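Lab meeting minutes (informal)
Scribe: AK
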Amino acid sequence: MLHLIKANMFRIYKKKSMRYYLIFISLGFIGIHVFMKTQYNDPDLYLMSTQALLGFSTLFIGTYLFSLIYSDDVNSKTDLVSIGLGHKRMTLILSRFVSAVLMVLVVVNLMLLHVLILPRILGYELSHSVCFLLVQQVLLEGFKILVYITLASIVSYWFQSNILATITYFVFTSGIVTSILQLLTNFSVFNNMYVKVSPYLLSSLIIKVQQGIIMNQSITSSIMGIGIYICVFLGISIVVYSKKDLEF
């Protein structure tokens, strides 16, 4: 499996589009804050705008990471070659998941560099509590990217379609599913069911973590719940892919 992980990371590293995309995101983040510095010069505004921008990272950065890690292999039928060489399908799934973890860690570290170093360059003096708050939010966004990538990968393995998988990632990260569920609560039958299962939904656990970070409350149980979701999604991927007939 280590060989597969190295191959995945090397393939990703060689893609110029990844570097261009990260540079584009970086310049956009810096440009927005430089503009706000010249117009308002308010450290509180820096905090609010940074939190808002981080909230979009799951959608924009995560979608690109998903396509980078999963879609290329689906399009090129790489798994057919790997299986032909004797690799088990579960090994392919786990190696790709580890690659996703590594890429999320890279992105998280880059985000931390931006949100912690940029204010110093701009002359803002952020307190330790504010810095800790930003660090927690960056880690949460990375965790959200990972869990939604794992969820969307089920569709990738099941249908062998990068378009459907990417749409799945977008639908969940954009909050469309949560909005639909909230609309359905207008019906009494569904509302009773929703009230019972709501605390255990992935979206609810993520909200609890976000609220816990802001209010300085314990988030251990919610993080563990999200971790269980990741394990379940991986298990479903393994079961689905093991029964999938791959087309040449």
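Next up, CB showed the second protein from the same session:
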Amino acid sequence: MAYDDRSIIETKEKKNEFESYIYDMRDKLSSQGILHNYIEPAKIQPFLQELAKGEEWLYGEGQNQGKQQKKVLDFCSALMKKRPRNSNL
């Protein structure tokens, strides 16, 4: 029981972290964002599309992943690793 509760809390925390990451990166890559001028334009749009997919997952299928922590962690980690290569994001 305690393990299940801890797992649910950790999953919710990871989802919140992922949501913050999406909003933060979207803001930083916007035309007025602090990273916009440092990333090749051809790399920004595909990354923004990945962020949109992540957001769609988070508010769709991700809502039902309460106890499936590994799936949530894998999905979030995979997107967070897709940062544009010529940056220190």
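CB comment: The chain is about 65% helix and 0% strand.
No objections, moving on.
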